[in-house]
Amino acid sequence: MTAHSCRNDDGVSSIEMLAGAGSRHATITIQTGGIKMRNRTVWFIVGIVLVCVLALMGTGFVVAATHGGFGGGGTAQASVSQDKPVFGVTHVYLRSDAFTPAYIQVVLGTMVTWTNEDNVPHNVTLSPVVISSSDNWESGLLYPGQPFSYTFTSRGTFQYHCQEHPFEMIGTVIVT
User: Fold this and answer.
1) Which residues contact 172 (CB under 8 A, 6 or more apart)?
2) What's the whole-number mean pLDDT along residues 101-113?
3) Is residue 63 part of a domain?
4) Opening angle at CA 160, ends 164 and 21, nearest 5
5) Across residues 4-9, what is the average pLDDT?
6) Do 42 and 94 lie in a common domain?
7) Which domain holds residue 12?
8) Cα–Cα distance for residue pair 162/166, rounded to 1 Å
9) One domain for residues 90 and 165
10) Is residue 147 domain-resident?
């Protein structure tokens, strides 16, 4: 995080903050507009704004994902903030352009099944597709009601997405 303050020729003070977390960025400019404020008041306002920006960034408000840019080599780079994984769940549903649950943890050798319960086609694709990996998988297009199952044969963190909705539909499987 960087903050810059300056005063122009008209006596207007401004504070500009640039908060960056990975590929998430927010810029905030506060101008006092000639109103004389004590430094303590200005920094209090800056602190409140900063807390709000960081809270929005932490909730996944800013999604900085690009198709094919979700990580590499079977490890995931978080692009959406997620809570703790749901342990032992082996069935994921595709509903309302989302994977439910989107973050699960299973043991090695577990078969996970994804079922499309939405009214539009979706798919389940490892992010990114890794040509040389034995854990490279892609469901193909799943029409409403169709399932896809995959048995995890290696440990790791695997992020996946729907190629039809790559920014909205992102999920993660942790294999221990």
Assistant:
1) 76, 82, 85, 102, 103, 104, 157, 158, 159, 160
2) 96
3) no
4) 100
5) 60
6) no
7) 2-58
8) 5
9) yes
10) yes
The residue type found at 110 is T
- Output 59 or 94, whichever has higher pLDDT: 94
Most confident of 42-46, 51-55, 60-64, 91-95: 91-95
Question: End-to-end alpha-carbon separation of the chain, Å?
Answer: 35
Does residue 8 sit in the same domain as residue 76? Answer: no
CA angle 97, 76, 169 (to 5 degrees): 5
Quote the tokens at residue 48: 């409140």
pLDDT recorded at residue 76: 37
Domain count, the chain: 2
Question: Residue 165: what residue type?
Answer: H
Judgement on whether residues 81 and 168 belong to the same structural domain of the protein: yes
> What pLDDT is stored for residue 70 in this prediction?
38
Q: How many residues does the chain have?
A: 176
**Domain CATH number, residue 96:** 2.60.40.420
